[in-house]
Amino acid sequence: MNPTTTTTIPSTALELRSLVQADASLQIHLESVPVPAPGPDEVLVQVQATPINPSDMGLLFGLADLSTVQISGSAERPVVKARIPERAMHGLTARLGQSMPVGNEGAGLVVAAGTSPEAQALLGRTVGLIGGAMYTQYRALPAAQCMPLPPGTTAAEGASCFVNPLTALGMVETMRREGHTALVHTAAASNLGQMLNRVCQKDGIGLVNIVRKPEQAALLREMGARHVCDSSAPDFLAELTDALASTGATIAFDATGGGTLAGQILQCMEAAINRSAKEYSRYGSAVHKQVYLYGHLDTRPTEIQRTFGMAWGVGGWLLFPFLQKVGPAAAQALRERVAAELKTTFASHYARTVSLAGALSADAIAFYGARNTGAKVLIDPSL
Prior knowledge:
Helix 5 (163-177) crosses helix 6 (191-203) and helix 8 (236-247) crosses helix 9 (261-274). Helices cover 29% and strands 29% of the residues. The relative contact order is 0.14. It is of the alpha/beta class.
């Protein structure tokens, strides 16, 4: 049986692809691909909005040096080429020669649906979706991976309804499940950081924000953030220790990954705890202090100077393993909260909207490639 449709669907569509080649070069281009027919439990979505998240950049650019970007082809079919440093190639061996689709999440209109009741219920609806390969004009995927958006919600408003909202909620849920009562977040003026602030303010959770610039600190304070520490300030460590002592935060989520920041957070956590210590211990405090690295904005090695006793840990944290760990019921509860607060707590703002081809212009790459706060870009493949 043919899947039910609501509109005329083309036979082919454009999809953005990223290719790492053996000569340490990267190529990004638009490729014509067949528009798939949805299976019984699937839907076909005309993608109308998909964000460029930090988590997309690694796959999109494959660790290429953006200062070497060269663009050829036409305005409708640009081809981006760049050099990849030799030292980075060992980490890309598994994707050599593979033309890979990009884009973690997005939103759009369900234009065809399989025969299952779950798929048919989404026909004609605007949905948020997750599952990779979102930088494309049409995407088929299981109905279970779609989130029906509340009536009156546009695709642009729902484009970022998975990665950042669920990451913010996942951090808070991890904090609770591991027995902590307050948390620390770095690169905290980001779109994700602003969401986390709104979550913590709404839920009454202590949050220590670490930023890198005075203007980022000012932005968060205007949002009502109480504890904001600027790592570029000369008294950063003292201010961080004060904030940790005030909140009791003993878990941190670090987006920078490299450098000394993770170790500094652990050092200041120990100092804050020792302010109320009743007696000295040569092994440090018995309170466990945890830093999770979930990003790699700083590409230097992570440096840890052990000045904080023995009760500590540094590890990695990613959204999808977390969702698998908590199970379908808990994950669904988090998704339902996102849907209910999509225009408030989890609202996203974009500095630019571009087409698929526009995302590969030199100007656009320079803009979103800098990863600056407030420079989030939305791709509308339907343009």
